[in-house]
Amino acid sequence: MTNEVLRSILSLREQRQVGALCTIVKTSGSTPLKTGAQMVVRPDGSIAGTIGGGALEFGAISEALLSIATSKSALFEHRLTKDHDMCCGGSVSLFVEVLEISSQCYIFGAGHVGKALAHILSNLDMEVTVVDDRPNIFDGWKKDLDANSHPNFIQQLPSVVLPSLIWDSRTYAVIATHSHALDRELLRQAIRLPFRFCGMIGSKRKVLVTRTLFLERGLATEEQLDRIDMPVGIDISASSPGEIAVSIAARIIEVKNHATLTRTAAVAPRLTPDISSSINSPELKERSSADTLHRSDDIASLVHPTTSDYTHDLICAATTL
Known about the structure:
Layout: H1 3-14, E1 19-28, E2 38-41, E3 47-49, H2 54-70, E4 74-79, H3 80-84, E5 91-99, E6 103-108, H4 112-122, E7 126-131, H5 141-144, E8 152-154, H6 158-161, E9 171-175, H7 180-190, E10 197-200, H8 204-216, H9 222-226, E11 228-229, H10 241-256, H11 273-279, H12 282-286, H13 292-303, H14 309-320
Parallel strand pairs: 6-7, 6-9, 7-8, 9-10, 10-11
Antiparallel strand pairs: 1-2, 1-5, 2-3, 4-5
Helix pairs in contact: 4-10, 8-14, 13-14
């Protein structure tokens, strides 16, 4: 492999772009170059290296772009005189290998589930990054994880880190922090970004509260919320952190391998006009988040003395978003 070809492959990885590596694996008769010649084809059709130039190379670029589009590596046979009107007279067997981008998973929250999930996903063909700002949260991780687990650690506030991360069609994200308010803020940021999969941990009530709040506030549409896997994971009646992590990993693998993702979205009841106006009142918006608990109780008592647990949760969510 030439330095030019190697540098081009490394550049594609750094830019998170797919590409194709064309390698002559067999020749017969007279050919411009022999076995081992290589050429990288980028998504825009530009190349690095050469397999001989001319009509052969032009045909190889077309085959490489097809392989990139279908994500399928393939072996192609080229008869130089018959296929390309080249007077060399020989033949070339060309293997086109698709240079895929590795999938990346962001785990927001380094609690028990986050740690177990990072362990599972790090043993798959996936780059894992765990984000949590709590002091000493990553202490002991390297000791507890096996030799094949190498997640990246970012010890900063997840809501500050999220916008600086790379989001594309091979991005997977799991929101599982220690705070419901932080989970909702991360979801608010992520829901409009490109991703292959995004899920949020939580109970059915938490999902209902989140959906209703996001719709009432105009933070997301029904279609955008339906893209979020919440409660995240496949229903296997999981209870322990390890089992929950397995259910989430199974969902991610299902999506990654292009299996059909089926999920019945939770349907949140609508807010009554009184509750909706209380949540969106200017007085409420002006108060600081430090007084969240008292504000929640005050609003609940003003709306109705028998406010349900669900409504109380919804008001708490509204005052912390």
